[in-house]
Amino acid sequence: MNNKILKIRLAKLSDQKYWDEYVLNHSKGSPYHLFAWKKAVESSYKHPTFYLMAIKDRKIVGVLPFVNIRILPFINNMVSLPFCDIGCCLADNLEIQDFLIYQAIQLKKSVKAYSLNFRGKLYHNTEMHLQLEELNTGKVRMILDLPDSADKLLSSFKSKLRSQVRKAEKNGVTFRWGSLPDMDAAYNVFSRNMRELGSPVHSKFFLKAVLMNYGDRAKLGLAQFQGKTIGMGIILLGGEGVSIPWASTLRDYNRLGPNMLLYLNFLQYSADNGYSFFDFGRSSEGEGTYKFKKQWGAFPKPLVWYEYIGNGKDENKPSSTDSRKREIAAAIWQKLPLGVANTIGPHIRKYISL
């Protein structure tokens, strides 16, 4: 075999070190691209994963991770990547990106998936890119550029924001870093909040699997009041940036400002440890979460996703009534006892790729 020829193959467990090195050194790499996401999804939700690697001169020159979300005959989609906002193709150049997308289309056909879903910006106007439909997500990622120290970060905040943070501390709310034994208390907060939002909750095992597989690249933060955990958040550390997939507080204690204290500590840690930006995650412009993130200085970045169907017919396209159905489902879910929601929720949530 001529090792100068570009080839594509599926990543194996033994490739994790080299995969992660490539992701961490790529300018568009995110924590979700890391091999740990694959292992957490596989171990907790049992979804098949297909992590494509492009190799040239015995080096990785591109990666494209996919998870197959399926419950036949109702759902069968390939998603890059589920349960997060980004996770699409990383490549050294346009040619490699196109080659990876071409192989992904062949993979779609082999598993008879309805669609390929790409979450993340691609190089534009390539032959393969033009075969994809760019989706109007209506969402933005909220990104905060970080200074090189927590002190500089704090001094950059407006006085109103600093007073809100101080309010939480004056109210007796404290922050500490947690670990796996703290997950029961953290999950109590997380699951209650998701039930109140009318949304099925991720399984506790999935959150634990994320912490275990990411190791030092995952941090669990806890906000506490009088010894009780009233807020939680998990941050994931990538090459240049930090992402926050989950954060929740107990509504009965929101007047004390636990959310402000959580995010302050996450941002300070990120700045002090040399990360250049903090990704607050997905929001809709003008909504409450958008305003919360914007007050920290975050700016909106359009969230670009793509889809490939291939047969001109998408059986999973949302209809005009889907929004109303979701509202009804959320209202019903909010009325469920917490134990019931926590038992049923993870079995539903594993098939919701957003």
UniProtKB/TrEMBL annotation:
<dbReference type="GO" id="GO:0071555">
    <property type="term" value="P:cell wall organization"/>
</dbReference>
<keyword id="KW-0012">Acyltransferase</keyword>
<dbReference type="InterPro" id="IPR017469">
    <property type="entry name" value="PEP-CTERM_FemAB-rel"/>
</dbReference>
<dbReference type="InterPro" id="IPR038740">
    <property type="entry name" value="BioF2-like_GNAT_dom"/>
</dbReference>
<keyword id="KW-0808">Transferase</keyword>
<dbReference type="Pfam" id="PF13480">
    <property type="entry name" value="Acetyltransf_6"/>
</dbReference>
<keyword id="KW-0133">Cell shape</keyword>
<keyword id="KW-0961">Cell wall biogenesis/degradation</keyword>
<keyword id="KW-0573">Peptidoglycan synthesis</keyword>
<feature type="domain" description="BioF2-like acetyltransferase">
    <location>
        <begin position="155"/>
        <end position="292"/>
    </location>
</feature>
<dbReference type="GO" id="GO:0008360">
    <property type="term" value="P:regulation of cell shape"/>
</dbReference>
<dbReference type="InterPro" id="IPR050644">
    <property type="entry name" value="PG_Glycine_Bridge_Synth"/>
</dbReference>
<dbReference type="GO" id="GO:0009252">
    <property type="term" value="P:peptidoglycan biosynthetic process"/>
</dbReference>
<dbReference type="GO" id="GO:0016755">
    <property type="term" value="F:aminoacyltransferase activity"/>
</dbReference>
<comment type="similarity">
    <text>Belongs to the FemABX family.</text>
</comment>
<dbReference type="InterPro" id="IPR003447">
    <property type="entry name" value="FEMABX"/>
</dbReference>
<protein>
    <recommendedName>
        <fullName>BioF2-like acetyltransferase domain-containing protein</fullName>
    </recommendedName>
</protein>
<dbReference type="InterPro" id="IPR016181">
    <property type="entry name" value="Acyl_CoA_acyltransferase"/>
</dbReference>
